[in-house]
Amino acid sequence: MRTYRLVILLFLAACKATTPTSTSKYSEDLSIHRKAPSVDKKDSVNVSQEVVSEPYTPLTGHISMELDSIAKIAYLENKAGKYVDGHIIQVYSGNSRDEANEARSKMYEFFPELEPKISYHQPNFRVKAGRFTNRLKANRVYEQVKEEFPKALLIPERFLQKYE
Questions:
Q1: Is residue 123 part of a domain?
Q2: Which of 14, 35, 64, 155 has a CA 20 to 30 Å removed from the CA of 73?
């Protein structure tokens, strides 16, 4: 047991703390950075009034300004326009852009008053023409279109009233 105590005593003596070996005497006073800045009450009231009174204006050419303007245009169109249930004639539906362009140009040749348009809903191109609110009129025109385009369909659709 004595040897055990001796080993512990030697171990503790070996773990004695040493003095620092650095000889540099560098010191820096950082107390000026720790102090909170003094705020005058008059300045704080003016600052808060300026922030409240000025609305948010993004930088010129900034992407948020462009997005805000696009969103505003869409909002005004939806607010002004009234959607109407109607029918439209679909002449082509497929994944070939060239065939869609051919169908559109052929539709312009035979029925220019219907104003055919190409839309792309991934992965299909669709050529649609005519916007009808009256089912009987839509059916008459559809029968004429069906002679030139046997795969044409009469589809119910909602669209803005300005296309009437």
A1: yes
A2: 155
pLDDT tens-digit readout, 38-57: 655 555 544 444 444 455 55
Q: What was the pLDDT predicted at 104? A: 94
Query: What type of residue is 108?
Result: Y
CB count within 10 Å of CB 163 equals 14
Q: Taking Cα atoms as reference points, which of 88, 96, 115, 94 lies closest to residue 104?
A: 115
Number of Cβ within 10 Å of residue 37's Cβ equals 4
Output the average pLDDT for the chain.
79
Residue 144 belongs to a domain with what CATH number? 3.30.70.1070
In a domain, 108, yes or no: yes
pTM of the entire structure? Answer: 0.51
Q: Determine the pLDDT at residue 89.
A: 95
Please indicate, yes or no, if residue 49 is contained in any of the structural domains.
Answer: no
Q: Which domain holds residue 148?
A: 85-159
| CA-wise closest residue to 158 among 100, 103, 81, 101 | 81
